[in-house]
Amino acid sequence: MTYYHLGNCLLLAYGPYFLTYKYFELSEYGAFWKCVQVGGMYLLTQLCKMLLLATFFPADLPSPVGVSLLTEVFKATMDFGDLFALSLVLRKISASGPIKVLIAGLGWSTADMILTRALPLWVSARGLQFDWKYLIMSLEANVVMIHHLAVTALVYLWSRTDRNSPHRPLLIVLAVCSVYSPLLPAIYTAVLAGAAPTAFKMLLASSVPSLLLSTASFTMLVQHCSA
Question: Alpha-carbon distance 112 to 140, whole Å?
């Protein structure tokens, strides 16, 4: 039963990544090592962000509620570095537009999945007692993949549109929303005035913005590629 629960969680978490890689036949483009290189860029970017956060917001300092929310806003603002790093990654990948987006987005989200969720799933999901939070963690990994693919599509579209294009303001708005949308669960928790929300509600608060963002960005990408 222990490994059955672990297997379900790992399959739910990693299955969509594998199916995306196989369905779009990314192996024909030599995408595996490109995804590994993108993952290395992800790791380097997160290390730089951690150094900046540790410098300006040490963890041992007391933080009131207002200051804590401001800290979360600053942490989210650091994610603009991810957009810059993704733009560098896309320049190094030699492929067509949609394949570029898939390789960069899949490599980025896979690295995020391995570094943030693989160890908790492997260590804790093997417990004898069933717990919903690990299934929800696996579902969150799928939302993260969709979110990173959508953000990668936005970065690609930004690099391919003219400065006078009418789509530029919309791309800016969507990019800002993609950076600050992870704040919604924290805001939701603050609105509840200390009452702990259920895990499903937190998953809903994080997944709905990502799904809306992905719908807009993928629609624009399809229109751009078909033009």
Answer: 11
Amino acid occupying residue 169 = P
For tokens 């059955």, name the residue: 4
pLDDT 10s digits, 113-161: 998 888 777 776 666 566 777 788 888 889 999 999 999 999 999 988 8
Beta-carbon contacts of residue 204 (< 8 Å; ≥ 6 apart): none
Task: State both tokens at 154.
Answer: 């936005």
User: What are the contacts of 111-117 at 24+ separation with CB within 8 A?
Assistant: 111/38, 111/39, 111/40, 111/42, 111/43, 112/42, 112/144, 112/148, 113/13, 113/14, 113/17, 113/141, 113/144, 113/145, 114/39, 115/42, 115/43, 115/46, 117/13, 117/141
DSSP 161: S
The CB-based long-range contact list for 82-85 (8 Å cut-off, 24+ gap) reads 82/45, 82/108, 82/151, 83/151, 83/154, 83/155, 83/175, 83/179, 85/41, 85/42, 85/44, 85/45
pTM greater than 0.85 (yes/no): yes
On the question of pLDDT at 45 being above 90, the answer is: yes
